[in-house]
Structures are given as C-alpha cells and as structure tokens.
Amino acid sequence: MELHSGLKSAEVAGKNLMALFPDLEERRLVSHFERALQGEASVLSTALHRYLLPLPSPFREGGLEHMLQTARIAPLFNAGNVCGIVLVIEDVTQRESQAAALGRQHRRDELLSWALAQLLKTDHPRKSVRQLFFKIAEQLDFDTFLIYLRDRETAELGLDSFGGIPVDAEKDYGKCPFLSFLPPRPAQIAVLNYVAQRPEPEYDVLKKARISAAVVIPLTVEDRNLGFLCFATWTRPTIQADESDLVETIGQYLATALDRENTNQLLHKAKGELADHAQNLERRVEERTARLQETISELETFSYTIAHDLRAPVRGMSGFCEVLLEDMAGTLPPQARTIVEKIARASHRMEALTRDLLQFSKVSRQEVELSRVEIEPLVEELPILAVPEVRRAITIQAPLYPVLAHKGLLQHVLSNLIDNAVKFIPPQGAPKVTISAEVVSQGSPNTRSRKLVFSSTESATRQMDLAANQVRIWVKDEGIGIPREAHQKIFGIFERGVSSDLYQGTGIGLAIVARAMQRMGGTCGVESELGKGSRFWLDLPAA
Asked: With a threshold of 0.70, does the pTM exceed it?
C-alpha cells in the first residue's frame, strides 16, 4: 500500500479508511465493508467497479488513470467472533489492459474483414462507398469521414462522399483542405492531432467544422493517386497510432477496389471499341472481298476470252508456216526457211500456252462437288497411262486410301504431276514414278505428320480415324529435282523450276495443280533437291 498509494503506514495507522479514501462512500462501496463486519465476504470485479481504492495506474501508456483491481472484503474472526476485516486487493491492470487490447484488435480485425468483403463483392465501389464508410466511421468512433476521388478522364480531385460535416461548413470541403497537411511522400498518411491548439491559419477550416483530430490517407495504387480518404473526430484531441494504422489498411482496400473498378471500366470500354472495330473491319473485309471476287471473276473471264480468241489466229499462223515449209520449200532461201521454222515453233508454244491457260480458267470456273473417290482405279484410268513407256514407269504402292474430292479435278492433278515426273528426267535417263498414300493427322499443311499404320483386324477403327484425318497422296520421281528456293514459286502461274531448253513447258501445269487442290479444299507441296528427284504431296480429307 505504501508503494502504490504514496501513504506511509504511520500516517494511516488507526485512521478511518473512509476518511482516507472518501470516494468509497461516493461510489457506494461502504455496504461491502458493513456486510464483512456482519460475517459476510464480498468479491468486487473490474467489470462492475473497475477498482476498489483509487490507486494510480502502474501503466501510464495505456491511458488509464487508476489501477484496475479485483478485491476481496472478508470478515476477520477471533474465537468465532468478527473482530475486524481482511482486505485483499489484486492489481489486474496489465491483464485487463491486454484483454481489452485483444478485444479491440479482434473487433478491428472483424471490421477489416467485413470492409474487405464488402469492397470485394461489389463491382461498383463508388456507388456503395458512402453507406460503407458511415458504418466504418461509427464502429471506429469517428464523427466525420470524407472521400475525395480523381476523375478518370481529367484526373481532377473532387469530393465524392462525406458524412458528419456541419451544413454551414460543407462548402469549405468541396476542394480538399487537407492537401497542405500531407507529407512530401504522396503515399504517406497524415495524422492531425490537437487541431484546436494549432495557431496556423490552414487549420481554421477544420476548426470551423469542429474537428479536433483527423487522419488523411492517400488512396494509392502503384504510385498512382486515386484520391484521399479522411476520418475526423470532434470529441477527442488525438488519434491513436493503432487507429491510424487501421484506417490506412482500409484505405488500401478502397484504393484496390477503385483501381479494379477503373480497370474493369477501361476493359469494358476497350471491348466495346474492339467489337466496333471488328464489326467495321468485318464489313470492310466483306466489301473488299466482294470487290476482289468481282475483279477475279472479270480477270478470269478476260483471260478465258483472250486465250480462247487467240487460238484461231495461232492455229492459222501454224498452218501458214506448214504450207510454206511443205509447198514452197524449194523456193525459200535458207535464211527465210530458218525464220519460218522459228515462227512455227513460237506459234506451237503460243498454242500450248493458250491451251493450258484455258485449262487453268476452266479449273477456276467450274462447279466443284466433292464425293468419295477411290484413288487406285482413278490412276488406272489416266489417259497418260495409255503410253506404254509411261505405264511401265509407274509403281503403285497400295493401299491408296479413298478421299473426298472432285474426280475430274483430281484426275487432272495426278495427270499433270505424272507428266512432269516422266518429262523432267536426266538425259538418257529412264523415268521412275511411285504413287503412294498415308493417313496423317490434321495440322500444318507444310509439315509432314506421323504415319498411321493399320492392321487388317483394325478396319473399323481405321474408318473412324480416317473420318477425323486426312489422306496424303505422294507422287515420287527420280528426276532432275527442284532447287529449294523455287519450291513455293513453282505453283504460281507461268513459273518454272528449270529454265533449260531441254525441258519444254508453259509454267502453268503446277499452277493448275495448286488451283485444283484449292477448289477441293486440299493443299499441296513438294520436297525436292537438285539431282535427287522430287516428292510432290497432295492432302485431301479422308472419305
């Protein structure tokens, strides 16, 4: 008692307890002593009375004026009679302070969880922020809150929501009066304590609204300031550090929710613009495709007409050359005969060009209906195989799987490839052509896929796999080959892989192959090197 009350034992011995501590009577605690003198014990808890004797608190940092106590007031017996009172006081200040701090922390954790849940479940935090922060301010014992947000377009700061500002002071808060109190670092909070005692003029606007303490939290996401969140009180001069930490965390939650809303709105706007752009682009593509198709149709009609109309004069030219060479051979000087022979050769080439060009136009213009085509019988029916040398040069490796194709176009394609294979061979060489097929999975047309091999007992499975894959037809020769740089261009019209005079051609045969495969929904390509032959492939849907 000497340590905690500051009273010496000599000062208090023999004196009345109520006289030493008069607030016992003021707080109506004397009755407990009277009951003890009658033989009845009492226990006083901090929940009801906080303390028995007004002793100073041993923990000043907790903000407590008096020591928190539990007390037992019991009778003192001597030979069965009450001869006095035994008073035992326990200092529970630290325990109760810790329990109160834990309770406050629990309530604040619950508030943080609730605020986070509210901000997470809404897609429009700007619309619900007023109702949300009324509840937060109430639970944190703040009298005022203000939220300033930046406009997404102009970045100007404006008052979005507020509560607790007197009507006569509202106009002073249209523009944020807290900006002058913020520290140099934009993401750092500002705590304004003892506002009433501040002589600086910038505090006058806060005093007018009866604000005694305030905290200002910048709403910042990745160094981007979205606005400010402010809490203030009228009833106490200071805001504790744990309170400012709590509202700073809530401010971070709000900033994240606002940034998510801004991002979603920008994304929605971008999606709308992208959809509009895609619609405009699709319309422009349709218009240009229509114009392109019209142009292609006109060009094809023009090329067909030109090729068709040129055939008659070319044949006439060839006929006149033959007349000159046969009927007037004896009268023609050698130099003139040479010139007529050159004209004849040129006219023959011109006739071949017009013939192939007409065939190319026919392939481009004819109607194409796909059906099941058996490849092996088709190869056997090729007109080019009527030539014995060609028939002997061809080897067919079964099975040749059926495909979805146009019979006439596929026959033309194979005929052109075989014709090239027997024509482009080394001098004094013999042609060798191998035709085979394999099932490949759908994929890049320029990448050879894994071959699928089936046994005779797997016919049902093979039919199912064929329906989901493609058949690749190979036409392999042992000719002169094609340089790598020419692999792509040889499928263009009037393009040739070999320019030697030993091999005549118009440069249209492979263009017809490519166009026919395109019309049938297939693809084609070549694998070749100079001097090592060529392997042409055709991909078509499996039947």
From this structure: no
